[in-house]
Amino acid sequence: MTTTTKGRPRGFDRDQALEAALMEFWRHGYEATSIATLTKAMGINPPSLYAAFGDKRKLFSAAVVRYAETHGDYGSRALDQTTARGVIETMLRLAATKYTDTAAHPPGCLVIDGATNTTDASQDVAAELRAYRENTKQAIARRITADINAGTLPPKTDAPALATFYAAVIQGMSTQARDGASEEDLQRVVDMALAAWPN
Fold it and tell me: DNA-binding residues per UniProt (predicted)?
C-alpha cells in the first residue's frame, strides 16, 4: 500500500522501506551505514528518503522506534510479568531466542550494538541508544524494589546493582550472538544468570 505526502502518492511502502533501513542499521551500525546503502536497500532514491524521513539521523531514530515495537519488544513483554524474577527470566529467555534468530534478521540487538563505534559527530546517536538501555535497567530496578518492599526479596537486596548485573548479562548475550553463539548457548547463559537471583 502506498502512502501520500501533500496529496501526492509516494511510490513506496513506508513501513517496508523503514524495515529495510532498520536491517541496514542493525547489520552495520549507524555510522557505517551510508545513504547510498540505505536507498539501495529501501528501493528509493535520496530525495524520496529525505522527503519521507528527513535525513539519515531522523531515519535512524524512526528505525529504533520500529525496532522497539517489533523485533525488540521482548523488554516490554517481559515487564508484564508479575514478579521481578519473572521479568528477568522472560526478558533473558526471549532475548536468547531473538538475538540468535538469524533467519529473520541480523544477530544481536540494535539498541545495544547500533552505535558501538561512533565519532564525536554521532554522540547523540550513542546517547539515544544509551537512554533506551538505561530506561530498561531502571524499569528492572523498580520491579526489584517493589518485590523488596513486598517481602518477596531479601530486604538487603541491592536493587540498582542487581538490575545492572542483569543489564550487563543482556548486553553480553547480544555480543555473544554477534560472535556466533547459538540459542542453546545463550539459554545456558540464562540458566547461570538466574542462579545468581537472591533467595
Answer: 34-53
- The CB-based long-range contact list for 114-117 (8 Å cut-off, 24+ gap) reads 114/25, 114/26, 114/29, 114/30, 114/60, 114/64, 115/29, 115/30, 115/31, 116/29, 117/29, 117/31
The pTM assigned to this predicted structure is 0.88
Q: Can you tell me which residue has the cell 547500533?
A: 114
Distances (CA, A) of 157 to 7, 154, 193: 58, 6, 16
Of 57, 77, 183, which Cα lies nearest the Cα of 121?
Answer: 57
Question: Sign (positive/negative) of CA torsion 107, 91, 59, 131?
Answer: negative
Instruction: Report the sign of the C-alpha dihedral through residues 26, 30, 34, 38, in that order.
Output: positive
